[in-house]
């Protein structure tokens, strides 16, 4: 479980599930109840369906040595990953030639073959591989990419659903 004092952990997307709260008296040996308080926050967060706590605040004071700890329970997701096309892209005379196609990758699953020449992507004519790479990088995993492909003397229309780059 992520525990953070940051209001917004960098690079993470999260959904607020609720607030968590714990209080206790601190003993004279440097706050022996703090681990119990943290455990209480974590248990509450889990009950709310969260997998993290952000914006943790602690207040200590008073004659009795009171300690209050609060936090925001969140369900942490991941930012969309790097889109994955799954094929080698090469400059061609009129478009982008498909080189090696990764077995089981998005390009293969949606019908692209080595030797195909992509002439259009998302309705626009392609001039080189860098242009198609830019289109792919600007997309997210799960986005659909409409392609017109020159294959065996005729044009074929295909739609590739981009995947997430494998680790």
UniProtKB/TrEMBL annotation:
InterPro entries: PDZ (IPR001478), PDZ_sf (IPR036034), UPF0145_dom_sf (IPR035439). Transmembrane segments: none annotated. Pfam families: PDZ_2. Coiled coil: none annotated. Residues 83-153 form the PDZ domain. It comes from the Bacteria. This is PDZ domain-containing protein. It comes from Dactylosporangium siamense.
